[in-house]
Amino acid sequence: DQQVKQNSPSLSVQEGRISILNCDYTNSMFDYFLWYKKYPAEGPTFLISISSIKDKNEDGRFTVFLNKSAKHLSLHIVPSQPGDSAVYFCAASAGAQKLVFGQGTRLTINP
Amino acid sequence: DSGVTQTPKHLITATGQRVTLRCSPRSGDLSVYWYQQSLDQGLQFLIQYYNGEERAKGNILERFSAQQFPDLHSELNLSSLELGDSALYFCASSLGTGSGNDEQYFGPGTRLTVT
Predict the structure, then answer these.
(1) Distance in angstroms (rounded) separating the CA atoms of residues B76 and B66
(2) Do A46 and B104 touch (CB under 8 A)?
(3) What is the pLDDT along chain B (115 residues), one digit of tens a residue?
(4) CA B87 to chain centre
(5) B98 and A46: CB-CB below 8 Å?
(6) Do A90 and A102 contact (CB within 8 A), yes or no?
(7) Among B77, B81, B87, which residue's Cα sits nearest to residue B21?
(8) Sign of CA dihedral A85, A87, A92, A97
(9) Cα–Cα dist B70/B30, whole Å
């Protein structure tokens, strides 16, 4: 049972434009959501998070939006830069810090 | 550099064998987590330890076991290895506060290949 789903395995965006990565979840007990970024041969690195009591969190070029009624999460990157090319994982937890990860979306930023 | 170290980086072994993966958490972190990432899959949570005690268990096979030592480093033992165990194994650590913003920091992973 895939509780966290990233339905787009890959996404290609022009440099300078907005990248939007999407994530859906099924478990209504999730109360904390995170995005991780992963480069090849490295472990995932934390990017940005949002608590279920908020609907938006912004950090520089990165903004995460949470729509609890739709059980949908999205990550906006604007403007997109070549260094943003990586695999992005959405993750969720229900208080006990056991993270449930999506399958990842490979983002490619084209110059 | 996340501050989490994992050894070895690569491991090639045969079916039926047993291996041990090692993880040293960030300084000050009490929780250690193990994840498995198979080809084209997301990270699957295996197990969490907090200050030497098992705290949470995920989809960990009975052939796999883990422990956290008094110095807080952790080892993941994989036995009776099968071809399907070939994967990237990540360790992560956190302070272990149990709150939602207790962010996990990941090591570079150990790539296990079973032939």
Answers:
(1) 4
(2) yes
(3) 889 999 999 999 999 999 999 999 999 999 999 999 987 678 899 999 999 999 989 889 999 999 999 999 999 999 999 999 999 999 999 987 766 667 889 999 999 999 9
(4) 12
(5) no
(6) yes
(7) B77
(8) negative
(9) 10
